[in-house]
Structures are given as structure tokens and as C-alpha cells.
Amino acid sequence: MENIGLVLEGGGMRGLYTAGILDFFMEKNIYFPYVIGVSMGACNATSYLSRQIGRNKVITVNYINNPKYLSYKNLFKYKSILGLDFIYNEIPNSLEPFDFQTFFNSNEELKIVATDCNTGKPVYFSHKNSEDILTIVRASSSLPFISPIVNYKGMCLLDGGISDSIPIKKSIKDGNNKNVIILTRHKGYRKEPFKNKRLLKAVYYKYAGLINAMENRYKMYNDTLDYIDKLEKEGKVLVIRPEIHIKVSRIEKNTDKLENLYNMGYLQGKTYYKKVKEWIK
Asked: At a CB cut-off of 8 Å and minimum separation 6, what does 19 contact?
């Protein structure tokens, strides 16, 4: 399998849909040579490369109602409703150990997308050149307003979805003429303009690039969806997406909804298995 990419959209807790698909792929030993992920897509991608089936489901479903994971009390300690030390230190290093050795020894290449707050442009990190992978994943997943800016190697970083929500163009630029794209929104979805521009400018007044990127994100996102539709008609991409509107928020805490979403993804992976096998030949 050469010159075939796997592109993973983010979407917060909606990413459990992707986790279900990837778990089925791992069970069938389907591994793409190139993977690029954004936000929750990046989180899913790390467990995919480390060959840890079920890990993302366990972390999300089992810990989502732990106040150390998600609560407004965390605002006082971390300036984020997410417990950053708990998520990016205690869980991967102790509670649900991440297999760093398998991850870094994997043959696949992983690109993780974050947004440079100063320029408003995407930054792409390769896991082969990034030892501090947890900080990079954290940067890619740090949502504006609810998570602090991540400082990494002189850059101020936030959620990769702000500047490149579905990085299909980056995958193509990196040499992949065929791509499987896993989206977390149903067909026909289109993003609406950001409404609270006054708050945006008040909170991030130091970062003109970030403000511009967030104000224009809906255009970038919708243009990318149109581009994906074009590629799909040309047979250059295989798109896997929810068949129905997912009623799960970015910070959903209802474990029944999360379980159902994961199961939906797993069954979707099973449905697409033969199609993916045939398509990548």
C-alpha cells in the first residue's frame, strides 16, 4: 500500500465515531502508510499507530465524568475546563499507559496539525521528528476559549481545526494520490460563521492571525468539503462519514451517547471494510 493517506477530522467527543472505525481496521490489520489527524483525530491516530485497540474508547467513556478530566473546577488550576495534567500525563503514563515504543517504532508516518496563533496558519508536526508527542497532541486538541494556548518551541499553538480542519490538501501535497477520509459530520453539513466576534477579539487581541483564522474558518471548512466532494466524484478519495446527524457535543458527558457513537463507528468500519480493501488495491 503506497501513496495512500488516511485523513482524520476532529470534532471533540464526536471523534469516538472515528475511534470505532479505527478499532475495526486494527482488528483487520489495516494500517495506512500515511496518517494525518486534527484534534481528536490526532488523539485517535496516536492509538492507531501504537496498535492499542479500544484505548480511545476507554479513556473517553471511563473518564469523562471524572472531575479531574472535565469540570469547571479545572479553570482555577489549569485555566481550562479540561484537566490537562490528568489527560496528558496521568492517563497516558499511569492509568491507561500509552505504548510509546510501538508508536515511535511504527512504519507509518503521522502528521499532527496545530494552529499558529500568531500567523493563523496550520503547522504540521511529524511524529518521527517530535519526541514530545503528548504536547503536540495537546496543542492540536486545545480548543479556543476552553483551553490555554500551548507554547512549544517558540510557537503559540491551538486547535488544528481552526486553520485546517480536514487536511486533505496536505496529504495530497505530501504525495498521496489516493486518500481515505473519515469525517465526523453527516453529508450535507456546512459550518456557519463564528458569531461572537467581540468576545473573540477581546480574548485573543494579541493574535491577529488567530482572529482572522477563526473568523474565516467556516469558509475554509466549507470550501474543503466542496473540494472533497469533487475528489470523491473523481474517485480519488473514499469518504467515510456518519449516515445521520450526530447529536453529541464537543464536550459530551452522556456515556450512553458516547457508547452508541463508538458502536456506530465500529459498525461503519465493518460495513466499509471490503470497500476499503478493494479501493486501496
From this structure: 44, 47, 56, 57, 60, 262, 265
